[in-house]
Amino acid sequence: MENNTTNILIADDHQMMLDGIKDMLAKNPEFHIIAEANNGQVAYEIIAANPEKFQILLTDISMPLLTGTELCKMIKSKFSHIQVLILSMYNNATAVKEAVFAEADGYILKNAGRNELLKALHRITNGGTYFSQDIVPIIYNQYHQKQQQDEQLGLLSVREKEILALIVKEFTSEEIAQKLFISKKTVDNHRQHILEKTHCKSTVGLVKFAVKLGLE
To answer: 3, 8, 18, 212: which has the fewest Cβ within 10 Å?
Structure first.
């Protein structure tokens, strides 16, 4: 085997998908599939047994025992030299966000053709990232939304953040007042200011806002 060949493990719980990927890459000398697995746990065990043997993990996002994102997190944590390309049928914000947080190097949809797969593999092999064109707007929207939320949170005073955290924990205005040694009227005033600054319309909206930011 030539030194410039990239060794790949593919993980998918559908044999037809495994066979399809192997067919796509069969005639390309740059990429060599040297192992396959039908669930995330087996994929991890194969890599862990000889991590230096692999350069790329190509994994489905939805698998038994370990999902693709869980597998990605473990691989990135222990074997950071391995690039991870996630292949998925899901183009929703939740799936994409999980993949990004798992530090995946790329994310392409299962309806992608051979050319896009090769493009993604070339990109991540050379130290870049690759996300399908259908995925890019989702990532941008997530980033833009996070920026807006950070700006909104930045408008809150220390006291307002403190009160918001207690609201999330379902404290009433009276309980918050007692806990912080302030009057209920003061709490209510702070609550109104928080609603205005976060553009929320209700306590439920505040809770959702706080949870999104991980404010607990």
So the answer is: 3
- With CA atoms as reference, report the closest residue to 61 among 21, 18, 37, 96: 96
What are 213's two structure tokens?
Answer: 């930011």
Long-range Cβ contact pairs of 107-114 (< 8 A, separation 24 or more):
107/131, 107/132, 107/135, 108/132, 108/135, 109/134, 109/135, 110/17, 112/87, 114/24
> In tens digits, what is the pLDDT along the chain, a chain of 216 residues?
445 789 999 999 899 888 988 988 888 889 999 999 999 999 999 999 999 999 999 999 888 888 989 999 999 999 989 999 998 886 667 777 788 788 888 888 888 788 889 999 998 888 878 887 776 655 555 555 656 666 667 788 889 988 988 887 778 888 999 999 999 999 999 999 988 888 888 777 787 777 666 655
Provide, for the chain, the percentages of residues in helix, strand and coil under a 3-state DSSP scheme, each rounded to the nearest 5: 55, 15, 30
Give all domains of the chain, ordered by start, each with its CATH number.
6-138 (3.40.50.2300), 155-212 (1.10.10.10)
